[in-house]
Write a structure and sequence with these properties.
10 helices, 6-stranded antiparallel beta barrel, Elongation Factor Tu (Ef-tu), domain 3
């Protein structure tokens, strides 16, 4: 899969495609239905498929730290799109220029001159251009004028309700991990490279792999039983996701203590999958109380995995 960063990096070889556009935060089952529609049309027309995404996401541009927590950071999203089998991802920088682009400019610069789109798949509620002035009807009209077809997507429901990133976000915030899994089509996880931290866990006798979240906030906050996979890694463990109030943290961090594992993980990509909620994040009066609680968390997580193993027998 090819990742193209910005309109200025489009070349003649990128012209002629089947495309779709959106945030694709989480690449959930609803997104996957859209992508399958794009892939089928690409195969039918013998054309490459392109997914157009934004960085930052529009609501982050407008609202900053008040934007809803991301389900997936940029790198995770690209990897998930690649797994779906699309040929290209075009990432547009959402800035003042893109925000102020008229609907006609959007069609001319992106769909016609940039990609020479032959078929465009969007939701029937899709709006674009300055002040959201463009809509599905305008796209259909432009397609008839300039020679590309436009199709809308059908709503994808699970348990009688539309699958959406906001619905998944609410499920995670309520620690309904099983519901989130049914909406995503996979267990919710966070991936990132292990970085050096304060080494506090090592001082407390429970070394942790620290993963920077690369987002303003995370939909999950608290302590969880987790499984972790990566290069040379397949382990169970317990992790804390949040701001680390006991040590006055200033940005969200995932700290995972992996059971019976002591290899060097610094700089390696780690995927942490959330299996069960243990407790909310909290501030402790001193490191001794924090250490005792961490030991209690470890016992609860081990008990969770042991119970699962017993049920599987």
């Amino acid at each position: 899969m090819e990742l193209i960063r910005g309109l200025h990096n489009l070349r003649d070889k990128h012209k002629g495609c089947v495309a779709t556009i959106g945030n694709f935060d989480g690449v959930h089952l609803g997104h996957q239905q859209v992508l399958q529609q794009v892939l089928r049309k690409g195969s039918e027309l013998n054309l490459p498929t392109v997914v157009i995404i934004f960085e930052p996401q529009p609501r982050e541009f407008f609202s900053g730290h008040d934007a809803p927590p991301r389900l997936t950071r940029f790198g995770e999203k690209v990897r998930l799109l690649q797994k779906q089998g699309v040929d290209r991802v075009l990432c547009l920088t959402f800035n003042e220029r893109l925000r102020s682009m008229s609907a006609d400019q959007f069609v001319d610069e992106l769909l016609l001159k940039g990609l020479a789109v032959k078929h465009f798949v969007v939701g029937d509620d899709f709006r674009f251009g300055c002040d959201r002035s463009g809509d599905y009807a305008m796209l259909r009209s432009s397609g008839e004028r300039y020679g590309f077809t436009v199709a809308n997507t059908e709503t994808f429901d699970v348990e009688g309700e539309r699958v959406s990133s906001s619905r998944i976000r609410k499920a995670l915030q309520a620690n309904k991990l099983d519901l989130a899994e049914r909406l995503l089509g996979r267990r919710y996880s966070v991936a990132g490279r292990v970085m050096h931290g304060q080494k506090l866990g090592r001082q407390l006798g429970t070394p942790t792999a620290n993963v920077r979240m690369h987002r303003f906030a995370c939909p999950l906050v608290g302590v969880y039983a987790v499984t972790a996979t990566g290069e040379g890694v397949k382990a169970q463990g317990v992790c804390n996701v949040g701001m680390r109030p006991t040590v006055n943290g200033t940005h969200p961090v995932l700290e995972a203590h992996l059971f019976d594992f002591n290899a060097d993980l610094y700089g390696k990509l780690l995927n942490v999958e959330f299996q069960a909620f243990i407790r909310p994040e909290q501030k402790f009066d001193g490191l001794d109380k924090l250490k005792q609680q961490i030991n209690d968390d470890i016992e609860q997580a081990r008990a969770f995995f042991l119970a699962g193993a017993d049920q599987a027998k």
